[in-house]
Structures are given as C-alpha cells and as structure tokens.
Amino acid sequence: MKEMEIYILTGFLGSGKTTLLQKLLEKEKNRDRKVAVIMNELGSYSVDSKLLGKEATLRELLKGCICCTLKDEMENEILSLYQSSQPDVIYIEATGIAHPLEILDACTSPIIAPYVQIKAIYCVVDAARWLNRKLLNANIRLLLEEQVMYSSNIIINKIDIVTDDERTRVREEIAGKNPGAAILETTFSNGEFDEYGKPLCRPAAAEHTPAHAAHQLKMLTMTYQFSVELNKQAFLSWLSDLPGNVLRVKGFVRFHGEKSTYLIQYAYGIPVIEKMPLSLRDTIVIIGSNLQKDVHKIELKKLEKKSLDIRGNDRRI
Ligand SMILES: Nc1nc2c(ncn2[C@@H]2O[C@H](COP(=O)(O)OP(=O)(O)OP(=O)(O)O)[C@@H](O)[C@H]2O)c(=O)[nH]1
User: Fold this and answer.
1) Which numeric CATH code is attached to 220-316?
2) ipTM of predicted assembly, 2 dp
3) Grouped pLDDT means (10 residues each) for the chain, 317 residues
4) Hey, which of 8, 10, 12, 18 would you mutate to test ligand 1's pocket, going by the most ligand atoms within 8 Å of its Cβ?
5) What's the pTM?
6) Quick one: which of 259, 241, 283, 309 has its CA closest to 109?
C-alpha cells in the first residue's frame, strides 16, 4: 500500500508560505517524484496558485479554511488524490489563520490516515510581525504563537527587515515557545536545503547539534484497526482513561450486539459517539503531542481481549 508524504505549510498571513512553497517545488524538480499541492485561500480567487507553474497537480480549496469550514473538503481532496494520481508527496499551504492542530486533524481522517504519512509541519514566521505581535488582538496573537508551538520546523523569514539583535531575539523567543522544533532563518525562504530538498533546520534547543531535515513532529498521529467487535462500555472507559496529551480520537467502531457502525469523536476530553448509516472499516486515529504509540497499541489490544472475554462470559450466562 503506497503512502503519500504530506508536508503542511502554515504561518501567519503574508509571512512567506507561498515563497517557501515555490522553493520546495523547485527542489522537487530535481527529484523524480509526483507532486501535488493543495492550496487553501479564504477568498474566491487564489492569486498564489498562479505563481506555481505547471509542474505539480494543483488543487485549490477556496472561500473558507481547511481547519474549520473546509475540513471535509480537505479530507475528500486527499482521498481523491490517492484514488487518481497517487502523488508521492503533497504540499498543503494553509491559510494564514489556520491552526496547525486542526490542519493535522483534517489530514488524518480515519479513511485516509492509512494512506498518508505526515512528514513535517513547517511554520513560516515573519520576523518583524513576531516582534510586534503585542500590537495584535489577543486571539490573533495566540494563534500566531500556537502556529509556532505546534509546528515541527520553523522558518524565521524576512530577516532582511530586522536588525541582528532583533533576529537573535526572535530566535530565542521562538526556541522558548517550542524548544523541540528545528529552526532556519531566511530571506525570501532562501536558506540551506538538504539533499531531499527540504529546508535544513537546526534544533532550536541545542544550537550545536547536527541539522535535521524534517525534525521530529511534536504532534503525532497513529492509526489502529480493530479486528474484533468491541464492548461499548469497555471502549468508553478506555476513552475516558486517555492521558491529557491525547488531543483527538476519531474513527469508526463496531460494538458487539449492535448492527450499526459508530462514528467516534473525542476532543478536549469529551467523547461523542453516533450511529453511522454506512458500514466502514473499524479504524481509529489518535492525535496527540509526544504520543506513546507502543503503550496505546498495548492498551488497544487489551481492550480487544477484554471485549472478547466479556462476550464469552455473556454467552455462558
Ligand atoms: N522583505 C521580504 N519580503 C518577503 C520575504 N519573503 C516573502 N516576502 C514578500 O512578502 C509577501 C508575502 O509573501 P507570500 O509568500 O505570498 O506570503 P504568504 O504567507 O503565502 O501570504 P498569504 O497567502 O497571504 O498568507 C510577498 O510580497 C513576498 O514577496 C522576505 O524574506 N523579505
């Protein structure tokens, strides 16, 4: 089964996302890979997409944001790319107001999760905007900071318009917000690129350690496919015992004794389950920061065994 690589480009309005995307696409030309781009714009006309040339399959999602109103369209778009051209890599340019966690969520619906591998979340930061962020409305400032906090690779762009001292300050503040990220400073996204054509970001916390192409994603996802029908109570109690670093669980589950498949949604500690008209593969996706995938896998296997045991006991009674 082919997995498509996904790179998410996030960053505030006008920070330089399209400029970075153009660089990435230029680098892809040197590699024999099938590339697709999904561009999301809030307006009805995407000026940016006209700059991209004809090398990549381009899909545009307009008049909304993939992290909220166009979330379903985004899932459909990735699935349709998988079913049609099966690109090796998809670059997703989000709108400037998109939240990285929500974009990640949109890229990992239980239907498409088995076919994608999220490689990195790049956040492009306008150095001057970052320094002046206190002038922004509190919600916008929070978004700007969360874009930085949840990304794996941070490109501090527009360093031509700040002084050396300011540049150091931006870097230190960003490293403070996300010590696990890798950072690169650029002007018009011109910086070092590795042999895979990816910006050569260096770890924020340890200046002198070797550079990494795609830094470890802080936000991780895992997919699990159930092989048995679950006991509903046991499943709900597994959900309620999840640790705080699990931010989302979603998927489709069949419960013993019930004809319908259930849609599972779990966010911010609150589970919602509802019957689905369709019968879908019993797959769940878990999204969280620093997920301990092996531990969750063991717990899910225990849940399956417990469900089988309860079913066996019910039969005996
Ligand atoms: N001075 C300076 N300008 C830059 C730099 N990088 C990009 N720009 C300019 O900043 C503007 C916005 O760049 P884009 O790449 O379109 O930014 P974006 O994040 O895609 O913008 P939105 O899609 O509107 O959110 C353009 O006019 C770029 O030419 C830089 O490093 N320095």
Assistant:
1) 3.30.1220.10
2) 0.98
3) 89 91 88 88 61 69 71 86 91 88 85 87 95 91 91 94 96 92 92 84 61 53 91 94 89 90 87 83 85 93 95 70
4) 18
5) 0.82
6) 283
